[in-house]
Design a protein that fits this description.
305 residues, alpha+beta, TATA-Binding Protein, 3 domains, five-stranded antiparallel beta sheet, 8 helices, Recombination-associated protein RdgC, RdgC, double-stranded DNA binding
Length: 305
């Protein structure tokens, strides 16, 4: 149940739907398999899988939802090979050249003929909504996957006034300063992984793993003008994560202290264990988000919002 990545969005208005309205909205777009001529489908599934029939799980004011994507896997190499064979057949048969417009048409026909036989794969993306505090956190490091989920949620509910969480100071500038000083604010501790990026147009990238970031070697890179574009951080001994310059949290790991607490609070069945984990994870995010934004100069709220 524990999220592994975080893309955080802020509601620019009060959440425009209630819990019951959200439940009804998601029911209208339930996850389903791809039809024979569909490349993919998006729909809402139960966050707890077979352990619950609810498409919205609620705990202590937090809502958990899950989008399932099913897509047909059609390798480009297979289409390319089939297209080459078809073009060769036409050129030999008709003694003429096949040009781009006809090639594109042939390619579309080949894709449609191969789709029904293609394998499918499914991918589930989770999101936690905190209506009282006005944020939504998506368990993904891919902005496209997060936007797919938000777009589907907007389509179902009719309104979703959200924007990416913004801060007043660029994360790269803050992280660079923290590493230079070997100290981070807001109960953050610097880890031993980072990425250093040259700010020039053709600048290189240095990736450091399991290194003392206070070492002379790292400081020389910073003195030469490189900036920290990704940094491993620990927060309050509750979780660790890699923060990048786009405010994405990757490789999120909730520490054993929280996991043990969830195990103790949960009952003997899987459903109560999942619920306890979700409750603790969500409340931890409610503490982390303001702490992290404060460390980055505070939240940047557009005028008029």
């Amino acid at each position: 149940m524990w999220f592994r990545n975080l893309l955080i969005y802020r509601f620019s208005q009060p959440v425009p739907f209630s819990e019951s309205e959200l439940v009804d909205a998601l029911e209208q777009k339930a996850a389903r398999p791809c039809a024979s001529q569909e490349t993919h489908t998006l729909g809402w599934t139960t966050p707890w899988g077979r352990h619950s029939e609810n498409r919205v799980e609620v705990s202590n004011g937090y809502w958990l939802i899950a989008m399932r994507k099913e897509e047909r896997i059609l390798p480009g190499s297979v289409v390319k090979e089939a297209l080459a064979e078809k073009v060769e057949e036409i050129e030999n048969r008709d003694a003429r050249k096949v040009y781009k417009k006809e090639r594109d048409t042939l390619k579309d026909e080949i894709v449609m003929s191969l789709l029904p036989r293609a394998f499918t794969r499914t991918q589930t993306t989770f999101a936690c909504i905190c209506p009282a505090e006005g944020w939504i956190a998506v368990d993904s490091s891919s902005h496209k996957r997060a936007e797919d989920l938000l777009s589907l949620l907007r389509e179902c509910t009719g309104s979703l006034p959200v924007r990416p969480l913004n801060v007043k100071i660029a994360p790269a500038a803050c992280m660079t300063q923290w590493v230079k000083e070997n100290q981070a604010p807001e109960q953050l501790q610097i880890g031993d992984d980072c990425e250093l990026r040259d700010t020039s147009e053709d600048g290189g990238v240095v990736r450091c793993k399991r290194q003392d970031l206070a070492s002379d070697e790292i400081q020389l890179h910073l003195s030469a003008g490189k900036q920290v574009s990704q940094l491993m951080l620990q927060w309050q001994e509750k979780l660790s994560f890699s923060l990048d310059d786009k405010l994405t949290l990757k490789r999120v790991k909730f520490e054993d202290l929280l996991r043990d607490e969830a195990e103790e609070n949960g009952g003997d069945d899987m459903l109560s264990q999942l619920d306890a984990s979700f409750t603790i994870m969500s409340s931890t995010l409610s503490e982390l988000i303001p702490s992290l934004t404060n460390a980055l100069g505070g939240e940047d709220i557009p005028q008029g919002v």
